[in-house]
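Pasting two entries for a bug report.
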Amino acid sequence: GSNAEHAGLKEGDLLLKLDGEALTDNMDLIYAVKQKHAGDHGTILLERGGRNLKVEVIFQTAGPDMLHKKQ
């Protein structure tokens, strides 16, 4: 699967925040991710099935598919 899947993200998840910063649209997400470097840790707040969940991730490489679940 993709790095996003390995990070615990699933199709249909609504990403609300990255490290406490609101993600109101795709541009917010792209900007926030571009600020990260390989090895950086982050927390994603997402909505799945009407429930809010926090997912701890480690950014692996540059680009849009750079997330891995924090072990």
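Entry 2 (this is the one that rendered wrong in the viewer):
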Amino acid sequence: LADEFRVIAPDLPGHGALIEQPGPKVMSVADYATFVRAEIERRGLNGVRVVGGAVSLAANTPSGRGRIARS
């Protein structure tokens, strides 16, 4: 991906550099998606696609709930 796109891999709350960040003891996928959307806004990024599991599904939708389309 990095050959064609700008790739950013932020640490999520409770992981990496944010291991000690205060917050809920247990975070849901929606909590992580909210964090990712806030980080995108904080960085002033546009046209972003979040890749990687359930968090990406939730973060890529305005409601944060995600949807899977079947054909």
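Dev reply: Rendering is fixed now. As a check, the viewer should reflect this: The mean pLDDT is 75.
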